[in-house]
Amino acid sequence: MSLSRAEDDTEDSSDDGEDPLVPEGVLRGIEEIEEGETASKEDIESVLKF
């Protein structure tokens, strides 16, 4: 699976049988959610300094 899009690749590769391109951060986020590594509302608010 590709984690980044080539600069000159402007076509959607999902139509030609290849895996769709997904940003690396999205994949990391999905893995973290699956592992239960998520921030609480309080954690987020403290980072954003509410």
How would you characterize this protein structure?
By secondary structure, the protein is mainly α. 38% of the residues lie in helices and 0% in strands. It contains two helices and no strands. It has helices at residues 24-34, 41-48. The mean pLDDT is 78.
Topology (elements, then pairings):
Layout lengths: L23 H11 L6 H8 L2
What is the element string, with H for helices and E for strands? HH
Helix content: 25-40%
Low-confidence stretches: none
End-to-end C-alpha gap: 39 Å
Shape: elongated
Number of E strands: 0
Percent of residues in beta strands: under 5%
Radius of gyration, Cα only, in angstroms?
16 Å
Mean pLDDT across every amino acid position:
78
Question: Number of helix segments?
Answer: 2
Supply the helix-strand structural class.
mainly alpha
Question: Outline of this structure?
Answer:
By secondary structure, the chain is mostly helical. The protein contains two helices and no strands.
List keywords for this structure.
mainly alpha; 2 helices
